[in-house]
Amino acid sequence: MSARDRILAKLRQNAPSTANALPDVATWFATHRPVESMTDKAKRFHHVIELAHAEVHAVNADTWTGKLHEVLKARGIEKLLVAEGTPHGDAALDDLPPRGIDCSVYDMAIEAWQSELFDDTPASLTAARAAIAETGTLILWPDALEPRLMSLVPPVHVVLLDASNIHNTFYEAMTAESWSSGLPTNALLISGPSKTADIQQTLAYGAHGPKELIVLMLGVPEGAAQ
Amino acid sequence: MSEHTLHFKPTEGFRTRSKAVVDNPVLRQSFRGAMDFLMSKRAAQFPDDEELQSLRSLGEAIRQYNLAKLPDLLLQLESQLTANGIQVHWAETPDEANTIILGICQRHSAKLMVKGKSMVSEEIELNHAAEAAGIGALESDMGEYIVQLAGEKPSHIIMPAIHKTKEEIARLFADKVDGVDYTDNVDALIQIGRNVLREKFQEAAIGLSGVNFAVAETGTLCLVENEGNGRMCTTVPPIHIAITGIEKIVEKLEHVPPLLSLLTRSATGQNISTYFNMISSPRKPGEKDGPEEVHLVLLDNGRSQAYADEQLRKTLQCIRCGACMNHCPVYTRIGGHAYGTTYPGPIGKIVSPHMLGLEATASMATASSLCGACGEVCPVKIPIPELLMRLREEAFSEPHAKPAMRGQGAGYSPLISAIWRAWATVYRSPALYRLVSWLGSRFGGLLPSRQGAWTSVRVPLRPAPKRLRDMLKERG
Is the Cβ pair A206, B55 closer than 8 Å? Predict the structure, then answer.
């Protein structure tokens, strides 16, 4: 008998004979979390993610690359990793190089350029698929065009978020988008720059991932900007 | 690394180790300060008691629902993960788990494994097994990296280096990390760790991680972390190996949000961790990063023993938040190392006997005042005090033929049992009670002035020269 069969046999022999009722997660959220307007969700998202040390800027479709340029220049950053083939990546590729920001692209498997990504990529731009107001969380589903390490290795991570995609809770996000019918290779919730309090409970940012997280929020409704 | 041999220590040394910590003001201050910090952070996350209590009830219901279906869910998880391209392995014992993991390393001629925080990998003592096999195993969580550099084990399941001051860490880095001068600036220390480990993430052939929740319906491994090292370990090296206890499984994805909320708020008082990393497959064709192979090792190591008993099964509801130890007056005074087990504190006391047998852990459950704080804060309502009472009974009752636990009766003493039986007889019979209390009041002075552990910090016990009934009689 294999370890698998032995473990399963032991469990089966002593498993309870009756099943428990399926926990009612939906009702708990319906009775304990408010339903908010888009404006309120945007406001709350902004407030909560700022508490986690992220920087948020309200932008619109015409001005966001300008704000991106400004944010990078303010930090003395002259090179940005973008996802070619995505609308936001292509917009950055069009707008930033003429203004003095060199844009590199993730067009090869990581094995071919790992040391450049780690040693010579000061910032990256990705989009967020959606966000969560309650916890100030960005949702990213990395894919072939916008790979996983883009949001992890560069010290400055800039994220473009459409404010109309902010959900109230994680539960609302996964049910509204039917996540249970299929998840990508890697789905990520990101709620601030990387941090640790492992030395004497002293909070330090930039542990292993980005030291700074900057959110450019598109289509912020009137009144939500703080 | 190898000047210390770090193995599970049987509880015989428990008193000595506890005394050493109680007598050490620096350690006392480290633990007291850290526990006060964590308790106030948690309290701030739960301002609404109704919300907290109803969420705990939901968390309990979710864990119990999933445990009731555990064998079916393990099969569902296995088939879903396999369909997603993740390879599933089963291990009954720590040795089997180490053999599986090191076998994968050897197939790929791996020299270095970088590790995200995983208490299950501590439980199987993977680092020693890897070292013995000539494979480097490097911890990458900052706290774990620090305790590994110091040749120690974690003293807390969430904050492994909680027992160390920043000055101690500064000296450690200056001594052990090449080219580093003494600095006790926390940001500078973290940057030192970051720079060392960023090299190692790129060098390692294997990334190892734990699992916080394994979702059966989607075949997804979920990881909670703040630092980003967990994402590094599961994304940069070409092979990712995850290891988990068989109990950490949920059937439905919708079970995750309530448990995640309970976990991070109870553990560190965060509304959510910086990263919640959900992995459902290895690198797919066309994708440009991520591991080519992902493995999951499912470990039993005594969990099926806890599962077999309706009351003890509740032990497996645990989501490893550490709130019970943060609120435990015993843990706060003696710290995590005194227990001598991978999992310290209240959760350690109820889970370790299943992993190590009661022979090695008989006295653990006695290190409790039964104040009930652990049960009150547990986010999934494990009745920890009740389980401690049960484990005391299992450890100290007379060995019998059908024990629910390995090592049942390990602490049994015929003399102590005879004394308790005599005590019960005396207290059941009014005539005997009168006689014995009369003898006590007349001859109590003959009791020795040294009464073992009791008199080490207290005055000796002596029956009063006059019994209550005598005094009442005198007053008429």
Answer: no
